[in-house]
Amino acid sequence: MRGRSVALFAAILSAAMFLAPALCEPADAISDGDYRVTIPQWEGPGTINYITIGNGHTMDIVVYVENFTDHYMDVDFAGETYYDYIHGSRIANVTLPPADDETASMIEETFVISADETAPARVNLDLDLVITITDLYDGTSEKVVVMFEVEVVNAFDLTSSFNRFFGIIPNTLPAPFNTSMTAFLVTLAAFIGIALLAAMALMPVFRRYTYMGARYKGWRLLWPLGLATVSISLLIFTQIGPWILGYDLTTTDVVERVCTAILVVMLFAALWKGYSAAVYGLLRRIDTDEGYKQNTLGPVLSSLGMVALWGVGAAIVLIVMGVDPVSVLVSSSLITLGVSIGAKDVLSRMFNGINIILSKRFRVGDFVIVGDHHYFVRNVGIMYTELWGKKRDRVTVVPNNTMAELPIEDSEIFTDSYVFMVEFTVPYGTDLKALEAKVLEFANGLDFVKKGEDIGPSFRLQSFDDSGIRVALKVWKAFNVSEKRIRRLLYEMLQKEGINVPYSRLEITIINGKPEDGMESDWRSKE
Questions:
Q1: What is the pLDDT of residue 492?
Q2: Is 272 a residue whose pLDDT tops 70?
């Protein structure tokens, strides 16, 4: 009997031990009535807090948690977001004491929302504050999710261009057209339309004052003009396009630098074209040598302007792309110094050539006497001067720095004649004075021979040969007169005067000589 009682007592005790937790847990588990989470202007779980923050800025959110139970509670805070440029601060776990008989216990914490300095302008960025409340008595817990929708305003965008037409007019269109892409596309289309209208307005001007008017007829001129104006407008548009889309500061800065560099290149290309047109126009007005200065100086001055303009443009592009201006200036100075030293002779020739052409010291076709030599000027270039010999059968090339230093004794213009000399031999015993008078009379009677004190015909005694006296007639003759004609006329005149030319005779005296065998018949026949 006693053993049966003991067994019954053990069974009752075991049942009580197994049933006790099951009966107590539902009653003690934490519920939403045991606590309360409040945030100013938050309407409770399931609702969204809308906040606006500038990049590089922060916003403090005050969170209150109350405990209505007689248990201790652990409160954990965690910020969650899918974006790497907005953040929620980490708050250390807090122990919430139990409530007393009259008031609930409460804690106050600050949740900080921040945006990176390079955060792009964006809207509808989700960020959640997850609050986990754990009952330390039984270990049960519940989570409360506070949802935020964050709008990031780019603090560096002073015009607040995000989602604005032209970066100015806010996009208030209804969904789904209220996005920044709509503002971007509309602004892009407007820029292209304005560029085409500008091209149409410029067409009459280009037709009248540029060669393009003759090259492109009718509306064909709109194609090159439209391409140019649209290209420029797109480069300008890319300055505000990234702001409208709300790109981050780094991307926007790179796009702006690249577009500015391209605009600088296009600007200096236009300046070079204008400079070249001005140079050729000026040379055309002052040129009196049938385009000689245009053809000679035009390319050189245009190239010098191109080097100068592109050099300055390249320096500006480097500065725009972030290179230190002092480094650019020092590098440019060193390059200029190196080129000046290395190309000293080349620069000397070039500038002396420009000086010769502008000062008109001598021109093409001039007859110049340099030292003891006589030359015709064949061509005056920027680097070299080409000289012809008297008969224009030999070309001498002289660097302009040397040409500028040579003393030129005389310079006369003979563009249609050159020196021609006829040599012939007359017998010994000829009256040279009478021959000279007849030859000069003959030469002065030719209408195609130059007359004058310095350039008139002259008679010269050249040498005494074995068989006669070698003399010469020197005349300035026109290019269109054949040298053979002068020789023929001179020969006819000499024959008429009884002077045998050419006179080349050799007298042979044979002393004690007889013809060899077999040659006697030939010898006698020749006698």
A1: 87
A2: yes
CATH of residue 103: 2.60.40.10
Q: Are 483 and 421 in contact (CB under 8 A)?
A: no
Element (H, E) at 58: strand 58-67
Mean pLDDT to the nearest integer, 187-208:
85
Instruction: Write out the E strands in 121-247.
Output: 122-135, 141-153, 164-165, 169-170
Residue, of 325 and 92, whose pLDDT is higher:
92
Instruction: Tell which of 314, 342, 370 closes a domain.
Output: 342
Looking at the 3D structure of the chain, how many domains does it have?
A: 5
DSSP bridge pairs for 370: 373, 408
Same domain, 337 and 367: no
* Residue 391 pLDDT grade (very low, low, confident, very high; cuts 50, 70, 90): low
What are the tokens at 457?
């015909």
The total of other beta-carbon atoms located within 10 Å of residue 109's CB is 16
Alpha-carbon gap, residue 396 to 398, rounded angstroms: 6
Same domain, 322 and 377: no
Angle between helical axes of 180-209 and 222-245 (0-180°, round to 10): 150
**Full domain range(s) for residue 272:** 248-342
Mean pLDDT across the stretch 267-271?
A: 79
**Could you tell me the CATH number of the domain that includes residue 375?**
2.30.30.60
Of the CA atoms within 13 Å of residue 430, those in its CB half-sphere come to 25
Is residue 312 helix, strand or coil?
helix
Peptide bond into 176 cis (omega under 30): yes
Q: Report which of residues 97 and 274 the model is more confident about.
A: 97
d(CA 201, CA 227): 14
Judge if 60 and 140 occupy the same domain. yes
> Is there a contact between 89 and 112 (Cβ–Cβ < 8 Å)?
yes
What is the reported pLDDT for 31? 83
- Asked if the model's pLDDT at residue 158 lies above 50, the reply is no
300/76: higher pLDDT:
76
